[in-house]
Amino acid sequence: MLMLLGAVVSGIMAVAPPEPYGPVPTPEQLAWQRMEYGMFCHFGINTFHNQEWTDGAKAPATFLPTDFNGRQWVEAAKAAGMKYLVVTAKHHDGFAVYPTAHGDYNVKASPWRGGRGDVVREVADACHDLGMMFGVYLSPWDRHDPLYNDPPAYDERFKAMLVELLEHYGPVGEVWFDGAGSEGHVYDWEGYYAVIREYAPQALIAICGPDIRWVGNEDGLAPDTLWNVHEITLPIPGEEGGGARRWWPSECDVPIRKGQWFFHTRGERNLRSLEELLEIYYRSVGLGAALLLNVSPDRRGLLPEADTARLLELWSVISETFDKNLAKAATAQASHVRGNARDYAPANLLDGNTETYWAPDDNARWAWVELDFGGEIVFDRFMAQEHIPLGQRVAAHEIHVFKDGAWRIVAKGTTIGYKRIHRLPAIKASKIRLFLTETKAAPVIESVGVYKASPRDLAVDMVLVQEP
Ligand code: FUL
Predict the structure, then answer these.
(1) How confident is the model at residue 243 (pLDDT cuts 50, 70, 90)?
(2) What residues are in contact with ligand 1 under a 6 Å CB criterion?
(3) Mutation test of ligand 1: which of 261, 264, 291, 293 has the most ligand atoms closer than 8 Å to its C-beta?
(4) Residue ranges of the chain that CATH labels 2.60.120.260
(5) Taking the CB of residue 239, how many other CB atoms lie within 10 A of it?
(6) pLDDT at residue 468 above 80?
(7) Which band of pLDDT confidence, cut at 50, 70 and 90, is reported for residue 458?
(8) Which CATH class is domain 326-451?
(9) What's the CA-to-centroid distance between 140 and ligand 1, angstroms?
(10) Which atom of ligand 1 is closest in space to residue 176's alpha carbon?
(11) Which residues pair with residue 385 across a beta bridge?
(12) Quick one: which atom of ligand 1 is closest to the CA of 139?
């Protein structure tokens, strides 16, 4: 009896973890969400014509980078805090920047490196070498290929190109299918997906695909309420009825030069400011989506210096803000703890371990967790993450602070999901509470963070800040 009591007190008597709620991420989706931030690179024949879309008739000889270095792109992305890179293997014009065996509109027909150049090879190798996830964009819409007007024949060629890319340039972590230009065209999506599942089962199919969802705009902005579970009706191989409700996390793709996915000479004036990029970061990553920021390599085949400098500046500000979690100095207590067990105690929110979390009992539909700093601190950023391997649960939340002897609400929000960051004016407080006011199932929270932003990052969310 005494021993049993001891076991209960020390938490050895395991209290079962919460059951998953609804669809949950696959291990690949989860790993992808945790990356948060990637680089998109649009590089192709358009780069040499100052056009966003060319019509498939530009001579292959015009693809002529003078100083191409794929590793430079990947090194810059990595130094700028990005964890993955997606490169255009073929855009809507149909020109492949790798030596495909399927068709003749590709780098082999260019004098670049005597017809032996391969953009995808260099970028893929550098990604693998430097520990970045490698992704590939292959445009379904093809303005060059005469087979495009014969959909079944085109489908076969497209699948053959997918096989090439997945077999020879892998591991591939993401395959990006753009829907642009394809209105009214019938593709064998199910066949495309089947090829990817067969040749690269770890790859996530993005945008026109079942694994990663397009956020719905090209501004880099996620909505305030962002659920990861959606009804989808795509023809997923092996899934009767097209999959129905699935975990389908969002990606925000946006170009660093406003309106320009491809390089344009004199495009530098379109380079977004640090403030704009911070706004994008907070409204994508800060709302639980991934940010895929496009940087266009220039006619040399290098990332322009100004863009790289801006990226590094952005990352230095983000790091300055988020490297020091003030919450680590606080003690945490909660309104409820699952089975009163240490396994689910609020201290788990601060241990930096993505496997542990704080959870109340299953019947809880609201709960709060409090951080007590033992004295006043000044903060202006608050971050929370749900433990998404168990699903997404929180529908509404508030941030309360204890200040001058009273509690007051300083922010309100809806979903949390993978991550939610609030940007507040600087607030002095001795205690902070994350109040989960509405949940679909008992909340399961993985981490919280409290920060003082870099002096180069002063914007405040346009959400409710309520004085009593
Ligand atoms: C769009 C395309 O038309 C653009 O050229 C670019 O590739 C962007 C990522 O998607 O729909």
Answers:
(1) low
(2) 42, 52, 178, 180, 253, 261
(3) 261
(4) 326-451
(5) 13
(6) no
(7) confident
(8) mainly beta
(9) 11
(10) 9
(11) 447
(12) 7
